[in-house]
Amino acid sequence: MKTLSAIVFVLLLLGVANSQAREEAPTFNKLDSDADGKISVNEAEADMRVLEQFRRLDANGDGLLTREEFASLDSHQ
Ligand SMILES: [Ca+2]
């Protein structure tokens, strides 16, 4: 019985961790605060993962992320 409780507990923890990770994944629309269709460095500052990957994501190096460039964000990093 104790083992079963432990297993259920671990499964619950995993479930909580999973749903949190999903909620935390930044979305393009959330970061594009002025809704101009591009994410600037200033807008990217709202999410550390996006900021850290900004240079890699900004494929054409114009300092702005388009929806296409943002799509290669690794939100698990
Ligand atoms: Ca914008």
Written description of the protein model:
The chain has 77 residues and is mainly α. The chain has a single domain, classed as Recoverin, domain 1 (Orthogonal Bundle). The chain is 58% helix and 5% strand. The protein is built from 5 helices and 2 strands, in the order ααβααβα. A two-stranded antiparallel sheet has the order 1-2. The N and C termini lie far apart (37 Å). The model has no long low-confidence stretch (mean pLDDT 87).
Spatially, the strands of the biggest sheet line up as 1-2
**Count the helices. How many?**
5
The counted number of beta strands is 2
The N- and C-terminal alpha carbons lie at a distance of 37 Å
| N-to-C order of helices and strands | HHEHHEH
**If you consult CATH, what is the topology?**
Recoverin, domain 1
Ligands: calcium ion
Q: Helix/strand-derived class?
A: mainly alpha
- Form type: elongated
Oligomer: single chain
Largest sheet: 2 strands, antiparallel
Overall mean pLDDT stands at 87
Q: Which second-level CATH architecture applies?
A: Orthogonal Bundle
Low-confidence stretches: none
How many domain modules? 1
Helix content: 55-70%
Report the top-level CATH class: Mainly Alpha
Rg is: 17 Å
| Share of residues in strands | 5-15%
